[in-house]
User: What shape does this take?
Amino acid sequence: MNKVVRIYLISEHKDKNGEIISYQDINKLLWELQRQTRTIKNKTIQYCWEYQNFSSDYYKEHHAYPSEKEILSYTLDGYVNDKFKNNNDLYSANCSSTTRNTVKEFKNAKADMIKGVKSVISYKAAQPLSLHNKSIHIEYIGGQYFANINLVNRSYAKEHDFASTMIRFRFLIRDNKSAETIIQRCLSNEYKISESEMFYDRKKNKWYINLCYSFSVSKNENLDSNKILGVDLGIAYPMCASVYGDYDRFTIHGGEIEKFRRTVEARKISMLKQGKNCGEGRKGHGIKCRNKPAYNISDKIARFRDTINHKYSKSLIDYALKNNCGVIQMEELTGITADADRFLKNWTYYDLQTKIKYKAEENGIKFKLIKPQYTSQRCSKCGYIDKENRKTQAHFLCLKCGFECNADYNASQNISIENIDMIIEQELKDGANVKHT
Ligand SMILES: [Zn+2]
Assistant: This one.
């Protein structure tokens, strides 16, 4: 499976002597590379037309098309690429990617352009920079992700005192759990980076990469595309999942998370107190310095969360596979944000959901999100919606049909129904099976 993720970049490039190169200078360089890319692309199209004209003349005479290799002693894109060996600053592998893709584009559009159905290809300013898959090197240092990207050729690097042909960027992935997961997987070689592109976002005055990556999806013939596993990120349990009508369920008891959270909270408070009374040293260096130990704990929390969520998402997917569920359905998390009742903090939920999504897709399971609405108040047996159905957080008792069970299980049963969000919307509109308060 091939996918793309957009990630913004911040230049953190240094020269040979470790001096920071300003982002304005990097911008200027990258704009220049964009300009050169455009020239190369447009010239490539010219070469393609020349060959095209030659080729059709040849056809008129010989009633057969010539072989690229016989005429050019290369393939057409090899021939074109050879023309751009020495007259630009692009990293050579990226330059070949540029010409190869342009030739491909020409060949795909050729018939339509000749017929006049499609206008002749011409590239305008601000072309994306093609990046060969081997041009992108990802690093994880001190809690941050970096990309070292081969962008310039050797002679440019030498002339400008660069340490190498690579330019260093930091990935901007604050709050972008999904991008972070993908980068982690590229780092661990679970995902393979493929040819990508870099763009300039004029409005934000920032560069971004459309990082292309691929992974193999294990074909599972046993999966039933009609069998939905509803997953509730819950109140009494962090996670509860079930297939509609199944008494069997998958639950995670959050004991280890809750225990860890309490330890961390306690330590955080005691360390902050210590910081206040520690006299010389940390005190007097501002709030940032004084809070430092607490920040270190948050790193620890992040690592713990990561490990736990990997574990939980893996066992959920195993459960889905064991039960041949072709679909995993979950609630969108946007609506939950304000709900203080929830057992865990939202960043944990979001990270967990992201991990479930990626693991599901890797295993050929479809991942579906539904709008979160009344799934915890609705009786999964008879559809009766009433806040009073849930007397306590953990206990569900339908006031209409008497169906009684664990509240998270009931929610997961609702979530395992196809299009349940639309069904509930209709039920609310009809009003017959709803208690209005
Ligand atoms: Zn009921």
Q: What stands out?
A: The chain is about 45% helix and 20% strand.
